[in-house]
């Protein structure tokens, strides 16, 4: 027994192991791309990755025989490692321009061309060693805040310095988003751990984010979405930490996270709204204590927060206002675009989607507003299959896609109800309830408002609300904790009456089974869908 215990990861050592694995494997991805992997035939690429996964499963089986997987941190680390391998495989098998959003193009140092899109934006900084000095709203993609593009430029320069060709250096831009996606898994684990979620609840909740196709596909993106999601997930984690430990240190961390999130993408500031409510609740409680010294301390602390977050977070907005008299916004394709949804009623766009809008027979995003203009239908399509509209799927794969899509629709409703139920549960502390519930609602409201202000089908893409996956992970974790596990379940259910007492565990088992079925089937679909 003592020998087995010596192998288990303690909380901090598990975190260290996970971070080391992520960094090593991400760098290995860059090395593989630079050592002929990309020039191999698809057959040989798949063979190589199959060997990698066989090694992983052999290690997993060995851990199981030794009893190491009975230790939660070890099991979690192995799950995260599998998630890293899936993301790495996707990046290695997907090119720079595959399934991208607003990617643009590059032409290299040998030209003075200024190219559009996120790749062009990175190239501009790399080529001219400065932020674009043109009006960012005159060239597509340049209106975004620059943090992601600056980091990408630095990574690009490091590649070039190490002797990597320009074409391969740009291909390696995916390694950064791979890193961000992998780190999101770790942040989710730490968040679930902070909420005292363990056992089966931990595994299912974490698996939901680790194996969800959106987080895997976005690992190969080159835009700023994945870094934005990382900052938003960190905001969730450190806000929950602040609720438990109202210290200046946590406040400073939050200020930096929100500030850097805003200069990655402005919509990351949405989570500052529920956090502001928590600040207000806390400040009111300080006032009620009538302790002048403590009151002055917290006035100072919140002033420090504002002094940090405002200059960082608002710097891009102020720069554009001063230099170009431009207010924050998004350039739009115009009314002639087939994606334009303004001619349709608000109910058609934001109401409950009809069966014809859901396209159960072919559950993929058709791009054209005439084919589908409903925000929630498009959101569900793109959550599973991105903005893909395959025309050559086999009958078996199409049936699997239909089954997964219907299951996903059912689970989306059930998990949303579950989130509300666990956050209204008395076992969830008041500040957690307020922060998480208002955050989730505000996220969906801001998404709906975005679709109304920018009425195009592309505005309904799931990538704008991918952070909601973390909320659902929390709901799954707390649901298992309250309704299926330990004393928490008996305490909560003891106050319930007959049917409700029996229904909650049954529904929780149903949700668990549905989530696991979706995750398994979607991996099978992508395994045989010849898009990787």
Automatic annotation (TrEMBL):
The keyword Transcription does not apply. Residues 171-312 form the Glycosyltransferase RgtA/B/C/D-like domain. The keyword Nucleotidyltransferase does not apply. The chain crosses the membrane at residues 42-63, 75-97, 201-220, 226-243, 269-287, 299-318, 396-422, 434-456, 462-484, 505-529. Keywords: Membrane, Transmembrane, Transmembrane helix. This is Glycosyltransferase family 39 protein. It comes from Suilimivivens aceti.
């Amino acid at each position: 027994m003592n020998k087995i215990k010596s192998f288990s990861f303690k909380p901090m050592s598990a975190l260290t192991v996970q971070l080391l694995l992520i960094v090593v494997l991400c760098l290995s991805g860059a090395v593989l791309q630079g050592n002929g992997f990309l020039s191999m035939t698809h057959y040989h690429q798949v063979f190589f990755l199959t060997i990698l996964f066989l090694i992983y499963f052999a290690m997993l089986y060995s851990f199981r025989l030794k009893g190491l997987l009975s230790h939660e941190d070890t099991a979690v680390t192995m799950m995260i490692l599998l998630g890293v391998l899936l993301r790495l495989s996707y990046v290695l098998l997907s090119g720079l321009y595959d399934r991208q959003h607003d990617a643009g193009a590059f032409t290299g140092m040998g030209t003075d061309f200024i190219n559009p899109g996120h790749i062009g934006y990175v190239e501009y900084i790399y080529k001219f060693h400065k932020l674009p000095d043109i009006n960012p709203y005159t060239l597509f993609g340049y209106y975004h805040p620059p943090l992601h593009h600056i980091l990408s430029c630095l990574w690009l320069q490091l590649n070039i310095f190490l002797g990597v060709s320009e074409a391969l250096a740009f291909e390696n831009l995916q390694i950064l988003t791979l890193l961000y996606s992998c780190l999101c898994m770790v942040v989710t684990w730490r968040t679930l751990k902070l909420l005292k979620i363990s056992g089966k609840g931990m595994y299912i909740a974490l698996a939901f984010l680790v194996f969800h196709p959106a987080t895997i596909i976005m690992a190969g993106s080159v835009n700023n979405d994945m870094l934005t999601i990382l900052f938003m997930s960190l905001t969730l984690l450190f806000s929950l930490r602040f609720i438990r430990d109202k210290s200046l240190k946590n406040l400073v961390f939050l200020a930096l996270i929100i500030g850097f999130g805003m200069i990655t993408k402005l919509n990351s500031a949405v989570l500052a709204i529920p956090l502001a409510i928590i600040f207000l609740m806390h400040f009111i409680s300080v006032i009620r204590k009538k302790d002048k010294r403590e009151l002055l301390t917290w006035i100072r602390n919140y002033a420090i927060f504002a002094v940090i977050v405002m200059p960082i977070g608002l710097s891009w907005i102020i720069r554009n206002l001063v230099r170009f008299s431009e207010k924050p916004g998004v350039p739009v394709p115009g009314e002639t675009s087939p994606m334009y949804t303004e001619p349709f009623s608000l109910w058609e766009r934001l109401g409950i989607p009809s069966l014809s809008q859901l396209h159960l027979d072919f559950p993929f995003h058709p791009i054209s507003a005439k084919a589908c203009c409903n925000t929630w239908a498009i959101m569900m399509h793109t959550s599973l299959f991105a903005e893909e509209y395959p025309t050559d799927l086999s009958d078996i794969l199409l049936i699997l896609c239909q089954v997964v899509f219907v299951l996903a629709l059912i689970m989306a409703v059930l998990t949303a109800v579950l989130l509300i139920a666990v956050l209204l549960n008395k076992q969830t502390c008041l500040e957690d309830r307020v922060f998480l519930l208002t955050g989730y609602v505000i996220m969906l409201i801001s998404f709906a408002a975005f679709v109304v202000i920018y009425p195009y089908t592309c505005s309904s893409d799931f990538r704008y609300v991918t952070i909601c996956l973390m909320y659902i992970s929390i709901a799954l974790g707390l649901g298992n904790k309250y309704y299926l596990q330990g004393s928490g379940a008996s305490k909560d259910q003891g106050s319930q009456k007959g049917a409700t007492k029996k229904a909650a565990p049954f529904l929780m088992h149903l949700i668990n089974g549905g989530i696991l079925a979706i995750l398994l089937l979607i991996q099978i679909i992508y395994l045989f869908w010849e898009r990787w």
